[in-house]
Amino acid sequence: NLEVGIVGLPNVGKSTLFNAITKAGAEAANYPFCTIEPNVGVVDVPDPRLQVLSDMNQARKIVPASIRFVDIAGLVKGAAQGEGLGNKFLSHIRQVDAVAQVVRCFKDENITHVEGGIDPIRDIEIINTELCLADLESVEKRMERLQKLAKSGDKKAREELDLLNRVKEVLGEALPARRVEMTEDELLLVRDLNLLTLKPTLFVANVAEDEVATADVENQYVQKVKEYAAHEKAEVIVVSAKVESEIAELDETDAKDFLAELGLTESGLDKLIKASFKLLGLITFLTAGVQEVHAWTITNGTKAPAAGGKIHSDIERGFIRAEIVSYDDLIAAGSQNAAREKGQVRLEGKEYIMKDGDVTYFRFNV
Ligand code: GDP
Fold it and tell me: Does the ipTM exceed 0.95?
């Protein structure tokens, strides 16, 4: 299951956003260290296609794709040295697929900023420094081991050492390992180090509730974050955590009205989910029958048998063919049978690369 870790300095709005995610409503207190254990929230990935398919098939239930958010609170200056409960948090980040870093772009005299005034770039750099220090430690540990092997003439170890030296140099400048140009093979070499600064990263610019519709172009802090993110190969989304927490209290219709009043077409949470999907190169294929309509998450480039494996390992092992119709074709035809008559249900083999919105039926031997 896809997992995104939420990090950020204290008092930037992480808990507020996270509470909106879980709708749990735990207290967001106005002081650092208020949340200690990492919390997990699971949300459905919004996908209007599911209801349409459900209606078409008179399906009994809908199973949307989901995404897990882990609230990794307490990352502060000195975390890599074990100050402020840091190391524990860092080890939690190692397990996630992507990192969403919340940065404060809202002004509010009543809410103290742990580092003084509002300065999202300084905040990002503080967090990055901690992540880099932690990565530096992992890299150095590995290098020590490799050095012994390299001395005894191990060529592979030599190559890896060269690569790690490059990574170390970048980390030493407090820059993320993402900045190191690496080939696919090199990426494989460092993969099991689970470097924090190699994870896909998204900046969540948290803005005041009254500027949520305009901040994307007008808020000067947001512009700075965007400039910064461009160098980092990172994405930026604009949300107001306050607004999200209010939306979380409303039912679907009221939430839509509320968004419209604010001049928005989608919630920050939906933006966050979509951006996370994009960041990780994920797509969705669908299965639709009377029992259920189900959305399945795969990485872009996944072949048909592996996609079937998401449903059951038997499907991958005994894969024969996949019967596939694109969602758009299916809707235009009106039903599976009509699509079949029009020749739009294709039989695809082992090498077929799945596309987003493929409505799929797998044939397999047991
Ligand atoms: P955390 O320490 O990063 O988890 O931050 P919290 O979520 O606890 O937020 C710190 C304070 O900022 C709380 O008093 C929140 O109500 C407030 N806050 C969070 N997001 C916003 C926002 O979008 N606008 C305003 N005005 N206040 C916010």
Answer: no
> Across-strand partners of 348?
322
Enter the CATH code of domain 301-364: 3.10.20.30
Single-letter code of the amino acid located at 56: M
Q: Which residue has the least CA distance to atom 22 on ligand 1? A: 242
Q: Are strands 319-326 and 358-364 parallel, antiparallel or unpaired?
A: antiparallel
* Residue 14 is labelled as binding a ligand: yes
The total number of residues written for the chain in this structure: 366
Quick one: which of 80, 72, 87 has its CA closest to 36? 72
- Does 91 count as an annotated binding residue? no
Q: Is the pLDDT of residue 24 over 60?
A: no
Domain boundaries, the chain: 3-279, 301-364
Q: Spell out the CATH class of 3-279.
A: alpha beta
Q: Is 84 exposed, middle or buried (0-12, 13-18, 19+ CB in 10 A)?
A: middle
Residue bearing the CA closest to ligand 1, atom 8: 28
Specify the amino acid at residue 84. G
**Average pLDDT in the chain:** 88
Q: pLDDT tens digits, residue range 275-289?
A: 998 888 899 999 999
Q: Which long-range contacts (CB under 8 A, 24 or more apart) does 73-76 make?
A: 73/10, 73/14, 73/15, 73/33, 73/34, 73/35, 73/36, 73/38, 74/10, 74/32, 74/33, 74/35, 74/36, 75/7, 75/8, 75/9, 75/127, 75/130, 76/9, 76/10, 76/32, 76/114, 76/126, 76/130
**Is residue 240 lining ligand 1, measured as CB closer than 6 Å?**
yes
